[in-house]
Amino acid sequence: MAQVSIEEQKFLDEVLANIDKKIEQAEGDNKLLLERMKENQHYMWESIYEMDNAEKAFARSQMEMLDDECKEKLNQIISLKASRKSPYFGSIDFKIPNELLSYRIGLKGIKEDGKVYVVDWRAPFSELYYNFDVGKGYYYVGDDKVTGDILSKKQYKIEDGKMIFCLESNIKIDDSILQEVLAKTSSEKMKNIVSTIQKEQNQIIRNDSPNNLIVQGVAGSGKTSIALHRIAYLLYKHRDTLNSSSILIISPNKFFSDYISNVLPELGEENIAETVMDELVTINLDIKEKIETKTEQVERLLENPLEIPSAEIKGSMQFCQDIIKFCKDYFNENFHASDFVYDEFVIVKKEKIEQLYFDLYKDKPVAIKMDWIKDYIVDSAEPEQKLTSAKAKKILSTMLQIPNIFEIYNTFLKQYYNMSFKHTKKIHFEDAIPLLYIKQYLFGIKRYNKIKHLVIDEFQDYSPLNYYIVNQMFQCVKTILGDTGQNVAGYETTILEDFNKLDTIKSQMVMLNKSYRSTYEITSFANRIINRTNVQIVDRHGKDVAWVKYANNQDKLSKIIEFVESSKQDGHKTIGILCKSMNQAEQLHQQLKDKLKYHYLNIDTLDYKDGLILAPTFLVKGLEFDAVIVVDADKENFNTAIDRQAFYVASTRAMHRLDMLYSTAKPFNLQ
Fold first, then answer.
1. Which of 55, 86, 242, 606 has its CA 20 to 30 A from that of 474?
2. Is the model more confident about 70 or about 580?
């Protein structure tokens, strides 16, 4: 590595002094805000009984404003402190006619009194660093293309404010610094990747198309991290029209939200709201029965393979198209219009009622359509007839009798698939989706109009009908992420053509086929599990995948403990003990809890903890560990198509070491 010059060190010292000044100022401002909040709270407690309603409302609004200012200031402090650890990671000298543009590029833009110390990684100029080597280059400012020559490109490694090296070269980022980053042990939570963003990742992050962006990425390609950096970029570029409260992420589970919670604050943005799909479905379906969560559904299918065929049918594009057609036909065929007669007088003729139902109000939900027809009839009656809304509704109901949504759904299943719906106290997730569609067809859709950008993670776990409903609720641009190789729900793969059928906003799909997470040996092994051949693997080598055979249950526990101890001795900080299902993880937990200290990850976990973790495979999607041991990796245990995907998920969590613990035969012909 190149020796750090006096000039480079001097510039870094100047930048650090500037950041320290900003941190001191921000902390001082925050202290004053907290004092004001304390004073206001004291005043409210002292005066609460003397205030009228208007004064109370004003006092509350003042407190909310101060609270928002405090949060903003704290995010600024977090961002500045993160920036101080490594203020910049690259620089570009760019020659345009009559001017040399020379800037460092970092996590956060830093300037003082007109002098630019560091350019934000999201700024147009920074595209040069991610997209080009020394030579010709260009970037856009609005619609204007700025073309010139890159004379110099430098890469820096700065840790805790100390410059480790400065490297001047025309090599790609992944040829040096990326290799070093990938070889490190995993951190507690997901971190920003601004210093190692690759060209293909940068193009997704800066994609500003009005279309939906679907990212199909292999395990370890950085999908979720790219999505978070894209959010930060969009917030930076469209700050006047977009803010953190107008973006929503649908995450695979609740604790995953905690796992990614550091990224946006590090990038200088507020964290955004997150939810899970089953929560969204439960709120909108609003029935007394409990709704199975998405994780409970996957557990059920892993433990009960006989239920997979039914889930596959309900997760198909054909099922989506069928139920849409059925609802339209069902409510049309069961509407029997007649003259509306009241007190022996015809108020509205049959032909007019048919025109209202089938033509003028045809695009309205059934209940709203019937309500509007009722209003039309009441308005058409003479005042002396004294036709009330309640009386009109009662007479009109004879023209269309609406069963409950469960009966309608059962009729659909029998008619189209010769199946029946089992109405129990807990509704299966794959049944909750069509029930929600029927309810929305009847009563209308709740629109989330405040959301201007929606991010959906793990798209392969949701059915086409699920997407159709979500697209009705959120009529905004979406970033949709997933990997068809990690489909543990048994659903049909949704292709680009289908996405375009399911949403009024056009979609475009990009492929990420380069895997950065695991060693060459681990990634090659994982690709054989699902016969994946189009993956580019970073040339970072390590140990071969180890198959460890155990003789009995006691031997199994001993070998797990040996694996953990040897992994720690090798310097691995995050270690995963992974079981196929929640049921198997619980059984192992009962046997292991007095022998090892670890964090047990189950469907009720809300906070991510690092270190040693015991978990089922489907809960660790998106996570990564330095070392992983897959327990009971036997042919008898992993044998269905969904098992294959779960086995792939487990294998691709490992960065440096992967062991397979088995007792009889290896699954999927992995000899």
1. 606
2. 580
pLDDT at 413: 98
Other residues' Cβ atoms within 10 Å of the Cβ of residue 466: 30
Q: For residue 610, is pLDDT > 90?
A: no
In Å, what is the CA distance from 478 to each residue of 263, 459, 499? 20, 12, 11
Reduce the DSSP state of residue 32 to 3 states and report it: helix
Cα–Cα distance measured from residue 210 to residue 140, given in angstroms and rounded to the nearest whole number = 18
Measured CA to CA, the distance from residue 263 to residue 257 in angstroms comes to 11
Say how many Å lie between the first and final Cα of the chain, rounded: 43
Q: Which two tokens stand for residue 481?
A: 């992420």
| pTM for the model | 0.86
From residue 103, give the alpha-carbon distance in Å to each of 132, 149, 153, 335: 15, 14, 10, 70
From 300, 222, 298, select the one nearest 652 (Cα to Cα): 222
Q: Computed from CA positions of residues 448, 453, 458, 459, in that sequence, does the dihedral angle turn out positive or negative?
A: positive
The two structure tokens encoding residue 448: 């989330």
Tokens of 361: 């109000």
Residue 489 has a pLDDT of 77
Q: Which residues contact 104 (CB under 8 A, 6 or more apart)?
A: 11, 15, 87, 88, 90, 91, 117, 118, 119, 156
Contacting residues for 122 by C-beta, under 8 A, at least 6 apart = 232, 233, 236, 237
Angle ∠(628,630,632) on CA atoms, nearest 5:
160
Look at residue 179 and tell me whether its pLDDT is greater than 70.
no
Q: Amino acid letter at 146?
A: V
Query: What are 2-56's pLDDT values in tens digits?
Result: 567 888 899 999 999 999 999 999 999 999 988 888 888 887 788 878 888 888 7
Query: In the structure encoding, which two tokens stand for residue 345, read together?
Result: 């007088």
- Closest C-alpha to 484, from 216, 277, 302: 216
The helix-helix angle for 641-651 and 294-303 (nearest 10°) equals 120
Residue with tokens 């089953």: 278
**E strand or H helix that includes residue 503:** none
